[in-house]
Every structure is written in C-alpha cells, then in structure tokens.
Amino acid sequence: MGRPTKLAQAETALACQMVTEDGFSVAQVAEKFGVHKATIYRMLVKTQHVRS
C-alpha cells in the first residue's frame, strides 16, 4: 500500500532517460512532468541511475 506514485512506469522510465541519456537537467524534467525536483531524484535513486 502507501501513497500512489506521481508518474506511471512509462513516465518514470522516460524521465530517467531524459536525465541520464538525453542531457536534460533534473529541473527541466521536473517542470515537464509537473513534479518537484526531489521526486525526480528519488526516481533516479530507486531505479539505480544514481547513487543515494
């Protein structure tokens, strides 16, 4: 249970790709998806694209 995620799995994958492969900043991706920068950083850590 718990709180529902802000983004669907496909959106999470796209956001991670945008930051890690496409060169977008975390701030740009957060603005595009309408979430806070911390949400993007948590997704990157959770999907192991960056270290915590």
Description:
The radius of gyration is 10 Å and the shape is globular. The protein is mostly helical. Helix content is 58%, strand content 0%. The chain has one domain. The protein starts with 8 loop residues before the first helix and ends in a 6-residue tail after the last helix. It has 3 helices and no strands. The mean pLDDT is 91. Helix 1 packs antiparallel against helix 2 (26-33). It has helices at 9-20, 26-33, 37-46.
How are the SSEs placed, and which strands pair?
Blueprint: H1 9-20, H2 26-33, H3 37-46
The dominant shape is globular
Distance N to C terminus: 23 Å
Percent helix range: 55-70%
Q: Any idea what the radius of gyration is?
A: 10 Å
Low-confidence segments, given as residue ranges, are: none
Overall mean confidence score, pLDDT: 91
Largest sheet: none
The helix/strand class is: mainly alpha
Number of domains: 1
| Strand fraction | under 5%
Q: Work out the number of β strands.
A: 0
What's the number of helices?
A: 3
Order of helices and strands: HHH
Give the structure's gist in a few sentences.
The protein has 52 residues and is an all-alpha fold. The chain is built from three helices and no strands.
Features:
single chain; 52 residues; mainly alpha; 3 helices; 58% helix; 0% strand; globular
